[in-house]
Amino acid sequence: MSSTTAAPEQQQSPRVRADELAQIVQGELVGNPDVILSTLAPIESGAPGALTFIRAQGFAKQWAESKCEAALVTRGVEVPDHDPEKRALIYVDDADVAVVRILEMIDPGVAHPDTGTHPTAQVDPDAEVDPTARIGPGCVVMKGARIGASTVLMANAFIGGDAAIGSGCVIHPGVVIGDRCTLGNNCLVFANTVIGADGFGYLPGDEHRGAIKVPQIGSVVIGDDVEIGACSTIDRAKFGITKIGNRTKIDNQVHIGHNCIIGDDVLLCGRTTLGGSAMIGDRTMVGGAVVLNDQARVGKDVKIAGGSIVLDSIDDNQTVLGVPAMPSRVALANAAAQRNLAQFCRRVEKSLKKLDPGFKPPSA
Amino acid sequence: MSSTTAAPEQQQSPRVRADELAQIVQGELVGNPDVILSTLAPIESGAPGALTFIRAQGFAKQWAESKCEAALVTRGVEVPDHDPEKRALIYVDDADVAVVRILEMIDPGVAHPDTGTHPTAQVDPDAEVDPTARIGPGCVVMKGARIGASTVLMANAFIGGDAAIGSGCVIHPGVVIGDRCTLGNNCLVFANTVIGADGFGYLPGDEHRGAIKVPQIGSVVIGDDVEIGACSTIDRAKFGITKIGNRTKIDNQVHIGHNCIIGDDVLLCGRTTLGGSAMIGDRTMVGGAVVLNDQARVGKDVKIAGGSIVLDSIDDNQTVLGVPAMPSRVALANAAAQRNLAQFCRRVEKSLKKLDPGFKPPSA
Amino acid sequence: MSSTTAAPEQQQSPRVRADELAQIVQGELVGNPDVILSTLAPIESGAPGALTFIRAQGFAKQWAESKCEAALVTRGVEVPDHDPEKRALIYVDDADVAVVRILEMIDPGVAHPDTGTHPTAQVDPDAEVDPTARIGPGCVVMKGARIGASTVLMANAFIGGDAAIGSGCVIHPGVVIGDRCTLGNNCLVFANTVIGADGFGYLPGDEHRGAIKVPQIGSVVIGDDVEIGACSTIDRAKFGITKIGNRTKIDNQVHIGHNCIIGDDVLLCGRTTLGGSAMIGDRTMVGGAVVLNDQARVGKDVKIAGGSIVLDSIDDNQTVLGVPAMPSRVALANAAAQRNLAQFCRRVEKSLKKLDPGFKPPSA
């Protein structure tokens, strides 16, 4: 009923010699070419057969004590106490990039359903499913929906009426994509994320009845190469669209309100919340647990630190943090003052009581 | 396998003349009755055929530059530079309300499963499902559960043992409603929300065993006309009930702990978290990402700004914000002082060093 | 199609006499042995037939006004105005523990699917499912997965390739457990939680392409007796494992990033977020809506108050709170100063303007 991209035995890291590895990553070997590597490990917790990486000078001093047998090292980093008889260093332009290449090589892939529509999936006769797509068990594809080539719906996913998913997408179990919402090509959506719930919009009620629901008749439009984590929610627009640009990456438990416009190449970390109609420009990076107010405007190439609250607008190229978010230089100075606030107040009060008989401490 | 409330061709906004629209919303037309409208747009991003709305004086000055061809205007707002030969203004008592009427009119509705129980749904023989209900594919209805007239379970929803859902409800895909929990009539629950998980209650363990689970044997009782967003969680009570009042609206990713008592007509915005046994009075509005401590008591007609943390209690009719939440006048003044805190401290230190040889800056 | 641990009529609390109850909890009865008890209630909202509990002296004075007919009282607490002719007090070593025993006794249990695999569940022929397990409707168990004895998958759950679940676990509807992730014995996972989504890891892109995905090929390893709430997410490691220790309890909507290492007996309250590679030591208690930065290190036996942000590291045995988290004594003093900050600044400015002609208030 299921096939796996890689057989289970391949899921253990392959065994590779240090000199072979140096060739694979086009690196320069300094040390023992015969070391056999079979696993990856952080430098501080290695084991025989483990490969680690030293991306910057700060990590190099741990090499002497590490139990790892080889390391990918960013060129220019000096590694003290290396014994080339026993262990291997492989110098590359960028150790992080080399690790990605190795991870891609040994990635076991995701266990997928078979090509075609599983007998327990429910595909409306008026939906269009590419014959190369995989519609897993329990999935539901409503009337008018379109599923592109090679796209995978893992299991128990729901694709609403007239929704469209491009080619090469992987939609994990339990994902719900509402009516008329669209995803581009090569998108990856993790489990139980919901795209296209109604925006949260009401007019105030009166004494006779409660809040009046504003119908949310818009949709969500998601670009190409977008990745969305698990249990995130992206609401449909009141009218028009909620938009997520190309190559934007969204972490778990992120909430994006109705009518938000998110640019290309944006990063939104875990649990960040965007109120309705917020805008974020291209290449902006937003830390975890950030809040953007309704209608907040954030420019391009902005960096927002985790835990910040953005009340109104942030210009292009700013680095901001805090509650409310401010340029980081000011915010860090205020935070430093805040840490000693009680002591500062006590000392100021003591001095001023001496100097000014009229001075009263607060709430006195 | 599925029917849609509206046929696809109706999902495009209908084309309507300005004078017809004025009649529909019982408004007064000032301008060209022949303008043909086919879409809604914000005033700053309109297009030919677009209708917009001007709810307050602040938006009126954008009309001259707008590409929209007609606008609903709240009576009393003066719109400068209107050319009645070319474009149309329609004056109404409340532009927001008129827009709701139009959205209701053109709302394509949600693609629903057919009436009856889908062959892949599992309904226990001892469950009671009204014959007018729609139980979609993959839904599971356990023993003793009751589903009211015209209620829709979209797909892959789970209704636990002895749970009850009133009439006219729409339960989106992946929603889980635990044993013995009840919803009133005309409720709307968006995808992957979980009602009736166990409350988080433990007694401290000792050296022999870990934390002792306190059984959570209560339930959740939800009133009529309640709306709950996607990926929200409402925990069952330890004993007794967790209660959500009538007409209360809950956004996405809201967490409501065990034994909370929420009044009628309450609004809870996205990602707000309520600790166990918190209480909120009628008509209170809670912004996004707010935290209420365990056992917090919030009165009626309170407004709590986004990002606030409520430690203990808030009286009726207060407007509060901040960490901890304080009356807004004090909180805003403190926030303003906080923004200049580092500069303030530097200047005070400089003066006091001159004035008082005994003064020491903090952490010195 | 489903069986329930307890028949519906048992779901109402049983009727029990006060003297019988005293025997059950091994307590000492002071008062009327004939009181008939049929429900549990908080002391302030009781009713005839209701049992309540008085865990500490602070609650004892409410007994005189309470409508409850009996109370479990922690030995040593003095209860004023008790009329032993009419009502019953039952003294026990710990009223909280006695209540747990009673709740366990009357717990109606969860409505489970039958033993075996439901006809609509999809179990790969190369998966190993213990014959005593219950695989509910719509569940999907992929190739190489293992399900232990007596474990229950409620409905529509997804168990990925080569994943393993121990014995005695209860997996609620809609839970998704990714490829190669493992759970120990006696774990409880509430609905729509996702274990094993990819960690959020990218290398910066360049002008030619967007962020480069770092393959997340590790897994998640969860110990025994772990409880995880609804809509929580635990990401798989980049390589190696994300680890949750034995007996750790995790609330709803908690997010745990890739490569986090959580000790034994840890408590994580609702909506707490852990960045990648964060570590938490044994027996640490973390309040609600807390944020741990990437790579934060929190020791053993730490207490972190709700709403705190942990930037870097917290030593063993600390009690911390605030943004950033600081020892509670300092944080509380700072918070107290913060509450009067605007007033303090005004008064200091007024004095310094008199004393020092060179003093300028901030932003002046």
Distance between the termini of chain A: 75 Å
> What share of the residues of chain A does DSSP label as strand, in percent?
25-35%
Characterize the largest beta sheet of chain A: strand count, sense, and whether it forms a barrel: 12 strands, mixed
What share of the residues of chain A lie within helices? Answer: 10-25%
What is the approximate shape of chain A? flat
Number of helices in the DSSP assignment of chain A = 6
Radius of gyration of chain A: 27 Å
Which CATH class of the largest domain in chain A? Mainly Beta
CATH topology of the largest domain in chain A: UDP N-Acetylglucosamine Acyltransferase, domain 1
Number of separate structural domains of chain A: 2
- Which runs of chain A of at least 5 residues are low in confidence (pLDDT < 50)? 1-11
Please identify which CATH superfamily of the largest domain in chain A we are dealing with. Hexapeptide repeat proteins
Describe the structure in your own words.
- The structure is a homotrimer of 364-residue chains.
- Chain A has 364 residues and is an alpha/beta fold.
- The first copy, chain A, contains six helices and 43 strands.
- In chain A, strands 10-13-16-19-22-27-30-33-36-39-42-43 form a twelve-stranded mixed sheet, with helices on one face. A ten-stranded parallel sheet of chain A has the order 11-14-17-20-23-28-31-34-37-40, with no helix packed on it. In chain A, strands 12-15-18-21-26-29-32-35-38-41 form a ten-stranded parallel sheet, with no helix packed on it.
- In chain A, a hairpin with an 8-residue loop joins strand 24 (202-203) and strand 25 (212-213).
- The first copy, chain A, is flat.
- Chains in contact: A-B, A-C, B-C.
- Chains A and B meet through strand 24, strand 25, helix 5 and helix 6 of A and strand 1, helix 4, helix 5 and helix 6 of B.
